[in-house]
Design brief:
Elements lengths: L1 H18 L12 E7 L5 H12 L12 E6 L10 H10 L35 H9 L2 E9 L3 H7 L8 H11 L3 E5 L6 H9 L2 E5 L2 H6 L5 E5 L19 H12 L6 E7 L1 H7 L3 H25 L2 E5 L4 E2 L3 E2 L12 H4 L10 H9 L7 H9 L5 H8 L16 H11 L3 E2 L5 E2 L3 E6 L8 E4 H12 L5 H8 L1 E2 H4 L4 E5 L7 E6 L2 E6 L4 E4 L2 E4 L5 E3 L4 E4 L3 H4 L2
Parallel strand pairs: 1-7, 1-8, 2-14, 3-4, 3-7, 4-6, 5-6
Antiparallel strand pairs: 2-13, 8-13, 9-12, 10-11, 15-22, 16-17, 17-18, 18-19, 19-20, 21-22
Helix pairs in contact: 2-11, 3-5, 3-17, 6-7, 9-11, 10-11, 13-16
The structure holds zinc ion.
The site of zinc ion (ZN) has 6 residues, from loops.
Length: about 550
């Protein structure tokens, strides 16, 4: 009953959105769309970042401020707190999703579902706004992130999997999609299979070479990756080895803006989330401000271009970070210097300080490391804690408990007035900031599903994403009804489907954007998807006709 009442409330909220300023009838279509996601950014990060800039002697303004126009209710189909995979999947598909899914139709979870889930489609890949922008409108596409490129947020743009951790399937689909531009981290995920896909579709691959990235001036497809895993936090970044998010965004826009049919670009400030999980104020604020610089780049381009919409929204909150902890008594009569005491002296993130401690030759150097990099005089008790955690690594960035990083985080936070609810995602609405050349923006409070539908309207898709899902990702047994099918799983990560009917034989390798029909290559718009969860292939519906 509770769920039904919630569903009715959602329906009314959606109707209200349809009739308010900036609703669908008012949406000005633009040739280009830039979607920007500061991952795991609680709304309080805005104020913390503005005041931080002022405390460091800068201007207390953010680029996102100019576009702030509402809030987004981010939740999953069966949980009020979102994970990154489900939250971004909802933005990209316009359908509320579950953890840990990447842009698929969810399964039913009757105990917790907020509304009825269509179980006839469970596990079917759900087409995304970025995929449809290219297949229906011929737009160029790009991804710019600071995490590894198979991470949840970029994954949800053009990949489909039951699990966000299915890096090889996600990486292969991302490569097969043939993005015009992909910049970020994650060289370790470029397997020989993925490299062969990039070679096949003519993508130039730049690896850990910032000079080659900066001098690139081609107009073909290009990837540039800068770290085995995630790129460095902004506070720790060496500009001689890694570009900033703003620089990568500018480079991507420079390439994409030459494409005649326009483009859809997704830019993620990925590591805000990682720093919030670690309860790291400098990491969180530093990476949000780096994201804000990228927003300025996008806004400046959109204003000059006159045919670009920029939509900015975090996927969920994280950690409840804010200033005003228990030890900040008398808060309303204390000044800015007080509020930011301690934190303005931190020269690096919790992660970097932990690595510096691991690198010292003798434990006697512990106090001097804290003094040099954080201006902190540690107590003997704290030093003992550090000593006993030297070999404790972070095994999961979402939960650093028990690691040296956790000890460092606690020591640094105790010298500030920052407080955190936890190292987990939090239940909260996230901010919405939009630039539209028409001056009309989506305003007010909207759900993540509504944002997904708004993105489709901004670029003027010809048909909906459910129809697009059936066009690109129908179950193989339905498409090839009456044919003989077999699966070669000798490479279990990348199985191959073979379909036979009379003298016709079609071979469909998983995650590749082509098939062979009697040994003749047939290119596809989107790759074939193998869904491990239900051991099923999902294929382009037009292939069925070719086998008759
Ligand atoms: Zn996230």
């Amino acid at each position: 009953m509770k769920q039904i009442r919630f569903f009715i409330a959602l329906a009314f909220a959606a109707l209200a959105g349809l009739t308010s300023c900036g609703g669908p009838s008012d949406v000005k279509q633009t040739k280009n769309l830039i979607i920007m996601v500061p991952d795991g950014t609680s709304t309080s990060v805005l104020a913390c970042s503005r005041w931080y800039k002022l405390a460091k002697g800068g201007e207390a303004e953010l680029a996102v401020d100019e576009g702030l126009c509402g809030l987004v209710r981010s939740y999953m189909s069966d949980a009020p707190i979102s994970g990154s995979a489900g939250a971004m999947s909802a933005y990209m598909t316009g359908l509320c999703q579950q953890s840990p899914n990447i842009s698929i139709f969810p399964k039913a979870n009757p105990e917790n579902d907020f509304y009825p889930v269509d179980t006839t489609r469970t596990f079917q890949p759900h087409a995304t706004v970025m995929e449809a922008a290219r297949t229906q409108l011929g737009k160029a596409t790009g991804l710019v992130v600071t995490c590894y490129f198979t991470h949840a947020t970029p994954a949800a743009c053009t990949s489909h999997s039951y699990s966000r951790n299915d890096d090889q399937a996600i990486g292969a689909q991302t490569a097969s999609f043939g993005h015009d531009v992909l910049f970020g981290g994650g060289t370790k995920h470029v397997t020989p299979y993925i490299k062969s896909i990039l070679d096949d579709n003519g993508t130039e691959y730049i690896e850990d070479d910032v000079k080659a990235f900066r001098s690139y001036n081609g107009d073909g497809k290009v990837w540039a990756l800068f770290d085995r895993n995630d790129m460095d936090y902004e506070a720790d970044r060496d500009p001689e080895t890694q570009p900033s998010l703003a620089e990568m965004t500018a480079k991507a826009i420079g390439i994409l803006s030459k494409k005649k049919n326009g483009f859809v670009l997704m830019v993620e400030g990925s590591n805000v989330d990682h720093a919030a999980h670690a309860n790291d104020p400098v990491g969180t604020i530093g990476d949000f401000l780096a994201f804000d610089e990228a927003v300025k780049v996008a806004f400046d381009f959109a204003k000059k271009d006159g045919n670009t919409t920029v939509v900015i929204m975090p996927d969920h909150g994280n950690s409840g970070i804010t200033i005003g902890s228990e030890n900040y008594g008398g808060y309303s009569s204390r000044g800015l210097k007080d509020a930011y005491s301690g934190v303005v002296d931190f020269k690096c993130t919790v992660s970097a300080l932990s690595d510096k401690l691991r690198a010292i030759k003798s434990p006697d150097e512990i106090p001097s490391v804290f003094k040099e990099w954080a201006n902190v005089d540690i107590t003997p008790e704290e030093e003992a804690q550090v000593r006993s955690h030297f070999d404790k690594q972070v095994t999961d960035y979402m939960n650093i408990g028990g690691s040296l990083n956790h000890v460092v985080s606690r020591i640094l936070s105790s010298r500030t007035y920052f407080g955190f609810v936890s190292g987990n995602h939090t239940i909260e609405d996230v901010f919405l900031s939009i630039y539209s050349p028409s001056g009309k923006r989506l305003e007010g409070v909207h759900t993540n599903e509504e944002l997904g539908r708004y993105l489709c309207q901004v670029i003027g898709l010809k048909s909906g994403l459910v129809a697009e899902s059936d066009r690109q990702f129908s179950p193989a047994e339905k498409v090839f009804d009456g044919c003989e099918m077999s699966v070669d799983s000798s490479d279990p990560v990348n199985p191959v489907l073979t379909v036979k009917n009379g003298d016709k034989t079609m071979v469909l390798p998983a995650y590749k954007a082509y098939v062979t029909l009697n040994d003749e290559r047939v290119d596809l718009e989107i790759s074939t998807v193998y869904m491990k969860k239900n051991k099923s292939f999902y294929v382009a519906s037009r292939l069925g006709e070719m086998m008759k």
